[in-house]
Amino acid sequence: MAVTEERSPAKIWGIGVRQIVYMALGAALYGGLSWVTNIIQIPSAGNVSFRPAIVIPLFFGAVFGPWVGLFTGGIGNLLGDYISGYGIYWNWDIGNALIGFIAGLAMLVTWGRYNNSRNILIAEVFAAIGIVVGIGFAAYNDIWISKLSFATASIGELLPAAGSDLINGLILLPILLVAYNAAVRRYGRA
Amino acid sequence: MPFLLLTIVESKAMLISFPYINRDTPIHRLDPRAKLILLFLFGLAAAQTSNFWFILIGFIFAAFYYSLAQLKWSETKRVWYFIIALNVMLVVFNYFLSAGSVVQGVDLTHQHVLFSIPFIGFSGKPPFFVPKPLIFSVESITFMITQGLRNFAIAMLAIPIPFTTHPGLMGIAFKGMGVSDRFAYAIDLSFRFLPSVTRDFGTTLDAQRARGFEIDKLSGGIFSKIAKLAPMVVPVVIGSVVGAEDIINAMELRCFGMGKRSWLTVLHPRLVDRVVITLTLAAFFAITLLNILGNFYSAGFLHVLHVQGIPQFLIP
What we know:
Chain A has a single domain, classed as Arp2/3 complex 21 kDa subunit ARPC3 (Orthogonal Bundle), CATH 1.10.1760. Helices cover about 75% and strands about 0% of the residues of chain A. Chain A is built from eight helices and no strands. Chain B is mainly α. Chain B contains twelve helices and two strands. Chain B has helices at about 1-15, 25-30, 30-45, 50-70, 75-95, 140-160, 160-165, 170-175, 180-210, 220-225, 230-255, 270-295; strands spanning about 115-120, 130-135. In chain B, helix 3 runs parallel beside helix 12 and helix 9 packs across helix 11.
């Protein structure tokens, strides 16, 4: 039986019931996993901290679209800080939203299908760009808000945060995409 | 037996609880929209100046606001330890990394030097990094104090929000600030998903532990360790995504999104909420206007946000 795949702008930019639920789910997963990995205190290696949660906005953006990625990153980061009691820091929420949004732009090329190496590599590239741009926004925003120098924002915030996110995200993203492919084939949903 | 008890305690720790404390204080009664608008505009206003007196006034106001929330030290100490450590580290690290050149609102060629310490600085010719004293002056110390006060003031407005705002009100608060119905509902839904998601993480972690997966004993190099986190992350994410299909079908069957949505909870701003929002907006616009005008006047009151405001008796 032939399967027709919908390829229209609505699949990428539309916000229907499906996108709303995935937004909420992604945000809860990002916030929850951030909180869980803070509680568990996984021992880090050198200067790289374990932040597996960063893969959540990258995955949700790449598979469900840029709006889902934006919401997952932004509200997910807000949730993580909220339940930890730290409060709300809007520039880091927007930075994380940018991570998910830019990662979601991969869907313009891949249409949300990651059943080959090429598409997974495209997702990785967009994820890397998203992390650098998102963390860069948040870190360099602190130059204005907290009166940090460019060097402090770069060395004290951008390098450690983006570095850890890149390593954690780029390793876990292909694993999650392959697992999602297998689940979709098994359940017959795409 | 001790190992079993530790495992049970750790599993119970996965049952998330929001930091909200149900108490009757002026900040608890304040509309969530007023708290969010106050936090956002305060941060933007404080970012526009390094004048010590303006920042001090803001700090005093933030301290008063925090005191009204009546939060106990035992309830917030873990958060404050982190904020204090981060703030001190950022302020000191920032000054050292910039070799003192980050000070704003003052002529750095005419500083009132108190003391200096041996340090390294950048020079335009090889070897580019040369020994240079790091100067501590009245101006630079004032700048670091101002920077610290600003960050603590913002923290004192940010920290009370999760402790004094019921999580069920966050979605409707964003709706009241102009966010569309769908996004506001998604925010509300994400708060509702949170406990079940963290419970699933705990269950998955226990199940994987039973299969020999020890998250605190990962072996191998950094890349290998991160890849070995997959058994914790993948089952929960994929299971949640697949399970979301039932929720989507249920919502579609109930015609979600077909018409304007009503909310179970409705926020009614009181007079004090309107006053707080109005005063916040007025103060923000006044500071922004003063900041813009300060670029056109090199002295006088209109230029006040562009100077540190150190009293003359401190810098004879």
